């Protein structure tokens, strides 16, 4: 049976965005590594402290995740990185940028995860795919790093919420398009995840699935000034 891992693929998207920013010549404002056994709140506080020394959260775009080849969630194999928003606005993605293409590939893989869990007809999935298709036409060429990065993260927000609602709304402990859907969930059941403005890193339960899903929300991303 096919499997998906929302958190791992979300981390990969963040990791590739950070690489794109780095290799486009934008120097990091700060890097806060994860620490083995560290509480989520402790990492969030450390990120906030680092950001406050570098213009504040609203002046930085954050990417956060565990390394694709590391031990995964709960380990120290990962970090939260801040890049200065103004420098990202001033830097434009050139034609045929391999790092931008790599980000787009990671974004498509994550959307494919959502399709597996929610179905191709889910409106949040369709919206995210439509946004990504527009970016694919140019591979991000001509976009600022800021606009590209924020779009890549924010297009995932509503599908993540939909997966969380679907999971919480199933008695079977998981969700596929063939199981009872999210309509049974009450409106007040909402996962805590990043939206809009600058947000701290946030970890979530493991989302490794064999036809079912257990995510609430992947690591919260960046950072819009």
Please describe what this structure looks like.
With 225 residues, the protein is mainly alpha-helical. The chain has one domain (4-209). It is 42% helix and 10% strand. The protein has helices spanning 6-23, 40-52, 85-90, 98-118, 123-136, 145-154, 157-168, and strands spanning 4-5, 30-33, 60-66, 78-84, 208-209. It has a 3-stranded antiparallel sheet, sandwiched between helices. Helix 1 runs antiparallel to helix 6 (145-154), helix 4 packs antiparallel against helix 5 (123-136) and helix 4 (98-118) packs parallel to helix 7. The longest helix has 21 residues, at 98-118. The relative contact order is 0.20. Residues 173-225 have low confidence and may be disordered.
Helix/strand layout:
Blueprint: E1 4-5, H1 6-23, E2 30-33, H2 40-52, E3 60-66, E4 78-84, H3 85-90, H4 98-118, H5 123-136, H6 145-154, H7 157-168, E5 208-209
Antiparallel strand pairs: 1-5, 2-4, 3-4
Helix pairs in contact: 1-4, 1-6, 4-5, 4-7
Q: What does the main sheet amount to?
A: 3 strands, antiparallel
Regions with little confidence, pLDDT below 50 for 5+ residues: 173-225
Class from helix and strand fractions: mainly alpha
Termini gap: 42 Å
Count of β-strands: 5
Rg estimate, integer Å = 17 Å
Helicity level:
40-55%
Q: Provide the domain count.
A: 1
Neighbour order of strands in the largest sheet: 2-4-3
Give the SSE string. EHEHEEHHHHHE
SS element count, helices: 7
Beta percentage is 5-15%
Using the alpha-carbon principal axes, give the shape: globular
Please state the average pLDDT score: 78
